[in-house]
Design brief:
The chain is of the alpha+beta class. The protein has helices at 17-25, 29-37, 110-117, 150-161, 235-242, 258-263, 294-305, and strands at residues 2-7, 41-43, 46-47, 59-64, 80-84, 88-93, 141-147, 166-174, 181-185, 188-191, 194-200, 209-217, 221-228, 270-278, 285-289. It folds into 3 domains: 2-64, Roll (Structural Genomics Hypothetical 15.5 Kd Protein In mrcA-pckA Intergenic Region, Chain A); 71-162, Pseudouridine synthase; 164-277 and 294-308, Pseudouridine synthase (2-Layer Sandwich), CATH 3.30.2350. It has 7 helices and 15 strands. Strands 5, 6, 7, 8, 9, 12, 13, 14 and 15 form a 9-stranded mixed sheet that branches. Helix 1 packs across helix 2. The longest helix has 12 residues, at 150-161.
Amino acid sequence: MRSFRCRVEAGDAGKRLDVFLAERTGITRSRVQELIALGKARVGGEARGKQYRLRPGEEVSLEVPPPEPAEPRPQDLGLRVLYQDEHLAVVSKPAGMVVHPAAGHREGTLVNAALFSLQGLSGIGGMQRPGIIHRLDRDTSGLLVVAKEDRAHLLLQEMVRERALKRFYLALVHGVPASTLGTVEAPVGRDPRDRKKMAVTSRGGKPAVTHFRVLEDFGTASLLEVELVTGRTHQIRVHLSYIGHPVAGDATYGRRGRLERELGLNRQFLHAHRLRFSHPFTGQPMEFEDPLPEDLAGALKRLRTGTP
């Protein structure tokens, strides 16, 4: 473990913490930001965020852990594989699993599991993201298509861009939409008030479209099937919150209250339950379905029956 320590001089006053540390240490700014996110940077003995503005005389320290292996290692994590051939695979990601390695999540990811369970992955996504075509949030479960070789990766990426890869989710939301069928078309980008979140915003927002239909009406809640047309970060969660029907269990864009307590719901009720596309090489129509995992199925059963 290497450590760095110095005092802020008058000429550095007002600088962001990440900029200051990158300049003083020679470490890339992106790596400095990773270390800050891990709590390795301190000002006056207290952990600070990357945007913290420095004042003269403050003592700044940074701990730099030894480098971790650059290449993710295969791990037997019990990944469920619904289909695979020499070009692609369709897998079911459990809730709580991050898709690819990142700061604070070097192991236990879908990539680690896929390296163990699949016979080869494409390399176009880079060493940390082999085979990854699209993603799911950490606490969202369900289906993902993974590329096993580079030609398939390029073709699948094109299918995502052309919206030929159809992705459908089941979402339990607070309240009941006024219309049985609906579309949310609103730009999604970084929340200008909280950069860790996404929001519907015209300032830097990218076009985003979400279709939904009501499957079941429970009065205080409803079960929706949602089609993700575009694929912005947190899009479904942001759009449903925007129209006043946040996903149950979503503490970031909604709330956790009585409904979640009654259903024993400890994460967002969002599951990628269906994928539909044509095979990029054979043209064969392909469709896959993934039933609700036990925790969400149990919550839905309690809602239907009114029993704890």
